């Protein structure tokens, strides 16, 4: 039986939209659009019992923040609210380079003493700049709430960031945040940001856990 | 001269021929942006809020630890004390060293130094368990950590 060659019938694409909708709804439901953010910190390396302990730090260079189990704060031997911590820390970080006899503020070292190490600072700020020897020491109890701990960390980070912004603003007319944001595009801004970072180093020490008192667990 | 005829003349129906195209476009967008949740959470946590937060850039190089009270369905078995969850199971801080090694083994060797250890901790947790975990991380030489927190939007700057 001879048959005429028949043309293939076109597939009906009408239900394509329905299928696509189905998939779309599936992905809509499963999608989570959250960007992960957080406070980045670097822990101190593990203590090696064979190496000698580091030389003790001069007490006036350390800004001590204590948080106890009842979520109270003791900053430099004074009772304080978390909200006020930023200002206190800022004052300490900036220090008082004019009067080194003042024991409340940390010591300074002059950049020009180690020209190779501080080449970037000298390039942008000059050799007579002074770097504060400040260290912020954060000590907490096992009973301190995590909420307070993060709040303290945040306040300290804000203090550093504001000091850096002010320094960069005075020197370059641009805030440190802007310099950092532009550092991917501009090499100069990256170096400027690095200079500011070296001039105001963020030193937050998370001390070994201690029983400060009033521990619950 | 009358151009338009008087009388009822319905609007022509809107063509739906381009509907599949639009839907496909949306579909591809969501397919590309979707990240499937890898672990099932066995602990509840409300993440604290902070201002000075940094974005975690490469998600494949972030390992998560969850700390918080067990979820409702597990409260009867596990109690209400905050617990540590690694991957899919409850763990004790002692297990962290092994877990760190495992994560490192599963990461490309060149990228191991870039790994970030993110702690997702409930705000109501006491620091005790967090401190234990931090000490274990130090022992495992996993020093780059991240206290996961959501950004507070500063309204005064807007």
Give a quick summary of the entry:
The complex is a heterodimer of chains A (217) and B (158). Helix content of chain A is 38%, strand content 15%.
Description:
The complex is a heterodimer of chains A (217) and B (158). With 217 residues, chain A is of the alpha/beta class. Chain A has helices at 16-30, 82-94, 119-125, 146-172, 176-182, 187-199; strands at 37-42, 62-67, 73-75, 78-80, 108-110, 130-132, 135-140, 204-206. The longest helix of chain A has 27 residues, at 146-172. The radius of gyration of chain A is 28 Å and the shape is elongated. The mean pLDDT of chain A is 82. The longest helix of chain B has 15 residues, at 19-33. In chain B, 27% of the residues lie in helices and 20% in strands. Chain B has helices spanning 19-33, 75-78, 96-105, 127-139; strands spanning 49-50, 54-55, 62-68, 83-86, 89-91, 116-121, 144-148, 150-151. A 5-stranded mixed sheet of chain B has the order 5-4-3-6-7, with helices on one face. In chain B, strands 1-8 form a two-stranded parallel sheet. The interface between A and B is large, with 46 and 52 residues. Strand 1 of chain A pairs antiparallel with strand 2 (54-55) of chain B.
